[in-house]
Structure formats: C-alpha cells, structure tokens
Amino acid sequence: MPRKANITTQNLTDHALKHFWENGFHASSMDDLVKSTGATRHAIYGAFGGKKQMFLPCFQRYQDLVVSPAFTQVEQTDATLEQVATYFEAQINRAEETGLPGPGCFVANSATEVAPHDREVLAKVEEHNARLKRGFLNALRNETPSTHQLSTKDLELLAGVLVVFTNGLWSTSRLTQDGDFLRASTRQFLETIRTRISGP
Amino acid sequence: MPRKANITTQNLTDHALKHFWENGFHASSMDDLVKSTGATRHAIYGAFGGKKQMFLPCFQRYQDLVVSPAFTQVEQTDATLEQVATYFEAQINRAEETGLPGPGCFVANSATEVAPHDREVLAKVEEHNARLKRGFLNALRNETPSTHQLSTKDLELLAGVLVVFTNGLWSTSRLTQDGDFLRASTRQFLETIRTRISGP
DNA sequence: TAAATATCAGAATGAACGTTCTGAATTAAA
DNA sequence: TTTAATTCAGAACGTTCATTCTGATATTTA
C-alpha cells in the first residue's frame, strides 16, 4: 500500500548541509531548502519535523563528509604534527577549490551563530572541538621527545591552542580570498608549535 | 521653533552597540532596538535611516569604548609581548566580569555573521584586523633581537597568526564559561610565540 | 482494474519583520 | 497665548518567514 519513497533522508541531509553551510541557519529559509533539496515541504516536515530538526543531523553528515576523511590520519596512533599539517593543507585546498572567501567550517559557523542560543547545537559543537583537541594532543605527544620539559598540562593546553587557532582560521577563510595566506599562516603557526615542542 | 532633542545620536549608538553585540545583527529586531535605546522609531529612523545604517557607526563606537582603551598600549613604540599579554588579560577579565560564555568580540561576530554578505561591514572588519596586525607586528619587532634569524616576512606572518588566534579566542569565549581556560590558553600561546622568537 | 495510500505542487495561515504613517502631546518662538 | 515645529507612542503597511493544509497525481496492493 505505501508508496516507495524516492528521496532518502540522507539525500535530504546532504542538500540541507550544503545550504546551511553556505548560508547559515537563520538566512536559510524553508523556501530555499525546498528548492535546494528538490523535496516538497511535506517530505521535509515528514522526515524531520522542522527546520531545527533538519539542522541537527547535518553535524553528523559534516563529520562523515568533511571532517573524518581528513582528520582520521591525525587520530592514528603514530600521527605527528606532519599529519596535522596535511590536515590543514587538505582543508585549505578544499576551501580554495570551493572558492575563497568561502563558507569556512560548518561547525565553526554554528559555534558563533547558533550555539550560544541553543543547547543542542552547543553540545554538537563542543563534541566536535573535543574531537579536534584529542587528535591534536595525540599528534603533539608523538612529536614530543619523552625526555622533554613540557608537562602533560602544557601539552593539553597546546592542543587547546591548536583548536583555537583552527577556529580562527575558518573565520579568516570567510573574509580572505588569498589561500596562500591561509597556508603560510598555518605553516608559520605549526613551525612555532614545533619550535616550542623541540625545546628552545 | 525646533524642540530640543534629549537623546543624542551617540547615546543611541551606545545602546545599539550593546544590543547588536549581545544578539547579533539579524536577531536584533527594530522592536528590540526601540526598547533598548528608549527612543522612538521616529527618532531612530530620523537619526540613522534604518537598521543597517544604525549598525555601521557601532564599529567606531566599539573601537572607542572597547578596543582602543586596551590596545593602544600595544601600539606604543616601545611595546613588547608583555603589552600584548596585558591586552589579552584585560579583554578576558572584561569578558569574565560581563559573564561567560559571553558575546565575545563585536567585530569578530560581525566578521562571520554579516561581513561575508556585506561589503561595508567587510571593510570595517578588515580595518580592525589590520589594526590588530600592525600592533602585534610592532610588539613582535620590539621583542625580537635584531640579530635574529627570523625574517621580516616571518614576523609579519607571526603577526597574522596572532590575529587568527585572537579571533579564535573570541569564538571560544562564546562557548566556554571557564575564564581561566582562556587565560591559560593565551599564556601558553604567547609563551610559544616567545620561544619561537627568542630562537630554539 | 479498483481501492487504498503516499506523494506531489502550491495555496493558506498566523506570526514577526523593517519601515512608514497618524494624530496627540510637547516645546519654543511670535 | 497663539502658532509652528518637533517629538511622542503606537497603529498600519507590505513582506517574509516557518508551518500546516488541500486537492490532485502517482503508486502499490488486492
């Protein structure tokens, strides 16, 4: 009796993510989402229930499509700052191909626009940042000679500094059209981190 | 013949800045602005012309009220990273007193929310970032021994890295309620910069 | 094929938005 | 005090928004 659905929820989420990413939550109207997904209002409200409930699954989709493919290497047990550098390069390359200035990072955008006024989104953003911090800390540990002066506490703080820098970088990528500037800044930053770790 | 105005334009801008800062551009309705300024719609539209034209002067007001009081010391001819550290401390203290998580930086918020879709706002944001970069570069130059290996190009990139970190820090201050974490991250970051500058 | 059900495109709804307008109240010059 | 200019509070206007509803169309089961 039931008619077969020809638009999957995942497909809807793909298009929704793209639109939310490029335009933000508030500036994405349901009209826009209907057009960009190609689905009907009925289908969208049936599958999700509303705009906000459509926004939330985009975080998982963003992880699967964008973050994980580039960041898993940083999470490997033997990863070092070289993998961190490759991660940044990959994200900057992607941003450059998409066009600079670009939409930056979906999570970083949500962090400033939505998270401060929404507990659920805040939780998603914090989860993402915690993942980044764990990965960075892993790389920093492998990079650091075990006989070095830097304490565990210092290394954890440095991992946090890397997260802060990452968010600042995405913010900058929404303003600049110069991909080489982003690359050079990142290289300079990582070189600075390396100098600190290998000891003065 | 004309009745004396008892609400000045500067007064309106003060209240508008406060509201825009705390709520962002899109989430600040004219109803809100009327309530928070205590002025009538007539007065607001007479003095500015509209919402957007009310938003723009807030940048200058933010410079005068928030940025300059803390940042001018970084712009002194003999400023070093010590002044940069003091600047960060002051801003974090202010954020903590206002309440964390807080509204962060008015310019940094506008950078991600408004600037990508508005040339005038983009110009204001770039102007602010350029000011920060000049100040940071000044401090870095004074901190660096003249006989050191770091090139002018490297120092300029480092100044850019400081700006990127700053924006990331404000983003973080919209999420965390832990002022000490912001302080510790900043200290760790500046210590890292110092290590790089004084040479490995 | 016939009946039941899912999906379609888009109209309808009610609230919120930025902006403009209205008429009363207030002020200062005459 | 009278008059003209100005400011007042808030209603009115025309859009736009998220959400719901409607009637037609397409698909599946019986």
Basic shape of chain A: elongated
Q: Uncertain runs of chain A with pLDDT below 50, 5 residues or more? A: 1-5
Please give the CATH architecture of the largest domain in chain A.
Orthogonal Bundle
Largest interface, chains and sizes = A-B, 47 and 47 residues
Q: Could you tell me the strand content of chain A as a percent range? A: under 5%
> Helix fraction of chain A?
over 70%
Largest sheet of chain A: none
**What class do helices, strands and sheet pairing of chain A give?**
mainly alpha
- CATH C-level class of the largest domain in chain A is Mainly Alpha
- Total tally of structural domains of chain A: 2
List the helices and strands and how they pair.
The structure is a homodimer of 200-residue chains.
Chain A: H1 9-23, H2 30-37, H3 41-47, H4 51-55, H5 57-75, H6 81-98, H7 106-113, H8 119-143, H9 152-173, H10 179-198
Helix pairs in contact in A: 1-2, 1-5, 5-6, 5-8, 6-8, 6-10, 7-8, 8-9, 9-10
Chain A binds a DNA duplex (30 and 30 nucleotides) through α3.
Short summary:
2 copies of one chain form a homodimer. With 200 residues, chain A is mainly α. Chain A has helices spanning 9-23, 30-37, 41-47, 51-55, 57-75, 81-98, 106-113, 119-143, 152-173, 179-198.
